[in-house]
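Reviewer 2 asked us to include a model.

Predict the structure of this chain.
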Amino acid sequence: MLPLTLGIDLATNTADQVVISTQPGQIVHTQPVSPQVRAWTQVLERVETWRAPGQAVVVILEASGMAWLPVAAFFQARQIPVYRIKGEQSTEFRQVLAKYVKQDRLDAEALTRLYYMLPDRLHPLQLPSAPQHALKRACQRREDYCTAHVREQNRLQELLKWVLPSRAGQVDRLLAPTRRAILPILVNLPVVATQAWAAFWAQLQATDVPLSTAQARRWYAAAQDAAALHAPAYVDFAALVREVQDYVAQLAHLEGRIAQWDQEIATAYAQMPPVTHQLETLPGVGAHTSAVLSAFLGRGDQFSNRAQVEAFVGLIPATHATGTQNRKGTPIRKDGPSVLKKACYLAADVARRWDPQLAAIYYREMVHKGNTHTQAVCRCVNALLGRIWRILRTGEPYELRDGQGAPISAQDARTVIVEQYTVPEEVRHRSQARTSAA
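Predicted model (structure tokens):
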């Protein structure tokens, strides 16, 4: 007997919409629901009027922000399985149901139909523990600040390139926190143009910027050359100095916030089950990466096999099969959590340099299959995810092994990789040329 399904279209500013379906395509009841315990309890009472003896009940909802969390908690507390569907899946299916109409009822109806259509791709939602939820939010918040930091630093770098064009390729050397104090001095070109070297050097020494005399002379010459090139009539250098000072202050602020969230992550990670700390035995996985993996994967109990873990992370090719054809080389889906994808990608890129089995995968993808570096690393990610899931399920630390599965030391593993799995430079150039042409 098919279960009775509740499709719930969650809203943030209006009432939620509920559709009750007893079988595929058969809608027996629809109603708006306010986000209150009494209202959801009345929905369950309504369900009982339609549920056949022995028929199971399942809830299907869309991952709309965090609005799903209290609703999922309500139903799971009553032993009702909850399935959370990604927004892209429900959106595409809604377009089939009603191409030119957007209605909350159709949104909820689409959710009930998706349950019957994709039974092998939906898995019961497992709510995270309070420490895991706190860790996940801390990792996401830290990533927000990291993204803002990269954005601000890139903007500052581009500004310095046009202000100091003769050393545009070296301005990134001044972006380190210990060297940024020199930037407001350098971009004040009218002052530097009339400033003797001794006065300029004394000003730099007062900032405690770690630059040698030779390095400082090169930047002094670049600033004087730029002053002769720029016309004060077109650039307000006093305003430019204030802008650079603001960039420097903002970067320092963001670095402070990142450090604060690093501490929050460390505190939350310490409360996670000991088995999650075994992930640090993997090459390329340090404490921070292990914390991210623990935040999003937990103990891995929600996955039945490695393929489900790979699908959750999302760094796998999209499926395109028709008739007797099964197209290869399709784009990476990229539909997993961005923080998790980034952590896995960076970990795999390091691990392939130390793990012979991952190095063999990378070598095969690059040399024999002609894939790009990014595609090859994504393939390593999925192999690494198998190791991660196994550690979370068994609690056993990871042990390096050679191509035949025999244990191997880190030093011998590195030797094997250098001797057998070093990708030739011409292969890398071929891959880079293909990427550029694309």
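The radius of gyration is 28 Å. The first helix runs from residue 37 to 50. We have added this to the supplementary material.
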